[in-house]
Amino acid sequence: MEARSASHSRRSVFIQVAVGLLANLVAIAPGMNLGFSAVALPAMQSANNTEQVTDDEASWIASLASIATPIGCLISGPLLDRWGRRMALLSVNVPGLAGWIVLATANAGNDFLIQIYVGRLLTGLSTGMASVPATVYMAEAADQALRGMLVTWPSIFMALGMMLVYLLGFCFPDDWRLVAALCGIFPLLSAAVCWLLPESPVWLTSRGRVLEAETSLRRLRGLGARDELPRRELDTLVAKPPTAWSALSPGAVLRPEVWKPLVIMNGFFAFQQLAGVFVVVFYAVDVAREAGVASDGYLVSVMIGATRLVVTVVVSYASRRVGRRPLALTSGVGMALCMGALAGFLFLSPDTRTSLDWLPATALVLYILTSTLGFLTLPFAMIGEVFPARVRGLASGVTTCLAYLCSFCMIKAYPLMKRSLERSGVFCFFGAAALLGTAFVWWCLPETQGKTLEQVEDYFVGRRRSSTSEASEMAPR
Known about the structure:
mainly alpha; 26 helices; 0% strand
C-alpha cells in the first residue's frame, strides 16, 4: 500500500510539473516582446538603415507595446472568469502570432512606421493577455506543496523569452525582421499544446460543475477512476459554494478579502515600475551604454537575459524554502545599492572611471539579478494567490492593467528623464524608488508561501482557520 501511495505521489508531481511546462509555453513569446525593442531599435536607428527612425519614434516603438498591454490585462480577466483558464491561455496566442507576422513583413515606405506600430500593439496586447492566466491556472491546478514553485514559472518562461530574443539580436543584429519571424514560432507551438491541458478544477467548481472538477483533479493528480481523491482537496472543492458576488462591483471591492490584496498588489507593482525594472528590459542596450559599459551592448543584453533567466529559476526554488517576503526585501535593498553604485560611478573623475571600467557592467548585471530575485517575479506570482476565486481573474487583470499603464509611463518618460535629470539623476531616482519599495514590502506584504488559497483569503478577512502561529507567519513584520 505504501509503495502504491509513493508511486501515485511521484506520478502526481510529474504530471503537475508537465502541466506547468505546457501551460507556461504561452509566456515565451510575450517575454520576447518585452525584449524585442532593445534589440530592434539600435538597428532601426542605425545610419546604415534605410528606415532610420528618430528618437521620438523609437520611444513610441518601445512604449506602444505597453499601451496595448493593459488592454490585454483587462481582456484576460473576463476570459478567465467567463470562459475558463484554458481558453484564456489559448487566446493569448492569437494577437501574438498576428503581431509577429506584421513586424516580420514590415517593408520600407510610407506605411513602415504604421506596420511597426500595429505589430507592437498586437504583441503588447498578447503580453497583457498572458500576464495572468498561467499564474492563476497553476495556483489552482497545483497542490499546496508545489504551488509556491509553479506559480513562479510564468516569470521563468518570460525570462526565457527575453533571453532568447536578446540572443537572436546578438546573432542577427542587423536583421530584426528575421528575429520577429522566429518569435512567431512560439505562439503556434503554445496554441498546439494548450488543447492538452485539463481545465482548472477550482474554476469548474465555481461554475457548479463539480463532477467535471473531480475528473479534472484526477487528471492533474494522476489518479484513475477508482482511485480515491485526496480528501482535503476534494473537501475544499465541494464545501465552498459559489459566492453571491462574481465581479468587481462596489460591494465586492469593499470586502476586505478583495480591497486589501488590491491595494497591496497595486502598490507592489507601482514600486516595481518606478524602480526601473521594465525600463532596463525595454532599453537594455541603451541603458548599458548610458551606464558607461564599454562592452558590446548586444552582448551585455544577452548577459542581462541569461542572468534574469538563471535567477528566476533560483527564485522558483528559493520561494519554497524562504518565502516571498525575504526574497522581496533582499531584492529591494540590492536594487537600491546597484543603482547607487551606477550613479556614484558617473560622478567620478575620468581617470578613476577608467580604472573602474568593470563597475558599470557588474552593477547592471547585479541590478538585474536582484530585481529578478523579487520585484520583477513575485508580484506576478502572488496575483494568483491573494485574490478570492470568484474575482481572481478580473482582479488580477485590473491589477496588471494598472501595472502596465505605469510601465508605459516610465518607458515613454525614460528619454525625457535622461535629458532633464541626466544619467546620474535617473539612476538616483530608480535607487530611491527601490528603497521606498523595500519599506512598503516590510510594512505591507504578507507571506503566502506554505498557505492554502483558503488560508490566504481568511487572513485578509480576519478569520483564523489556521493556527495562531500560521496566522502570525503571514502578517507583515
